[in-house]
Design brief:
CATH architecture of the largest domain: 3-Layer(aba) Sandwich
Strand order of the largest sheet: 7-6-5-4-8-1-9-12-2-13
Helix content: 25-40%
Oligomer: single chain
CATH superfamily of the largest domain: Alkaline Phosphatase, subunit A
Number of domains: 2
Shape: globular
Radius of gyration: 21 Å
Structural class: alpha/beta
Number of strands: 18
Order of helices and strands: HEHEEHHHEEEEHEHHEEEHEEEHHEEEEH
Distance between the termini: 56 Å
Largest sheet: 10 strands, mixed
Strand content: 15-25%
CATH topology of the largest domain: Alkaline Phosphatase, subunit A
Number of helices: 12
Amino acid sequence: MDVTRRGLLAASLGVPAALGLAACSTTPAAGGRPIPVTGATAPPGSPNLLVIFSDDHRADHLGLTGEVPFLQTPALDALASEGVLFDHAYVTTALCSPSRATLLTGQYASRHGVRNNLSAWIPGTPSFFDSLAASGYRCAYIGKWHMPGDLPDLTGVERFITFTIEEGQGVYRDCPLVIDGVETPRPGTYVTTDLTDLAVQWLTESDDDRPFCLVVAHKAVHHEFEPPDDLLGTYDGVEIDLPDEAFTYQTLLDRNVWEGTAGRLQTSYRRYCETLLGMDREIGRLLNAVEPVADNTVVVYTSDNGYSWGEHVLTGKRWAYDDNIKVPFIVRWPDGVSSPGTIIDEPVLNADIAPTLLDIAGVPIPAAMQGRSIAPLLRGEPVEWRDDVFYEYFADFPYQVPPSQAVRTDRWLYVEYDRGLSPELYDTLADPEQRVNLAEDPAYTTTRQELSQRLADLRREYT
């Protein structure tokens, strides 16, 4: 008897091959329709690619870091133990829409054009899906899209599931979905679980032997920080340790109020951690689903940006501090990772994901991609790597955050603002929380000048 991938995956979770999409609404949505690419055949043994992309998950909020003693993320911890964790992973813009576009294109916002949450995806923009589908991959995008305007018709994507409610932010409960261009009510669902169900369904519904590339983009852990019912209150009794400068109602300050976290900071933070716990559980389910083909499946986990919980009296993202620009970045690649369970210190970017996926799949990397493949780092090969990273942020009405650019080295964070604020300079080794601005200290004049020049060079290179 032939055993198909579909049969193996379905048996692993005990799920049927279909979860009721026949009952979908027939109301068409603008765009979002699949555009499969046919005729190409992937080379034998081409790896499957699974990218799990979350929202507002800051780098130190993993159980394995021990930074938040009560926090539990067993699925992500296990993934890191079987792969590698990048300890210095950064986003090029700490904001939902630009970061998603960077994930897909391997480019900075200056190049792909999605500069803020008000910028639409430009039709025809190439993504890594184009190259993978043309090389014989079966591709799907399931989850948060969050770019304004009509949903795109992504070339090579055979299943496109997202949501447009709340300007693309979605809601945690009863979130209607757009499934391959069809608006579909989802009553009685919790969005993190629903997206996982649909991802598992897509994996199990076809006998197609082509390798797959699946992106699962969660709403979690974005506000309003709503955990599943059975996890609500899990962390109510634990002691939390917020920064010294944080205070209970800082969420009501002008530069924080637009983040949507109005209320007691401590309560919001507990709900955030519970929502993260719920997402980790669903990630575990998805990893279980691919277990039958795990030996030939590359898994990448990261987030669109971090999140401040009181640091600099901020609640949210956008600012160039590590709390916002650093993200978890885990890769499991059974055939490639030379030392599973290790931590890699070289700085990597969300812009590196697209070229990495293509490189691992044996597909040429388009010259337009500005990121670099991290495959040599995963293999443990000696490679000349970047010494610093460039960050850019554009105005995003109505948020009270001035446009900025920054350079982050292994020691320094240097930030320049387009208006309103003077430059900032932090020694991140001596001052990891980036509280002491050294930009006006005469002892650091040379350092500031050198970093300002380096920032100018990076602007010319990436924008």
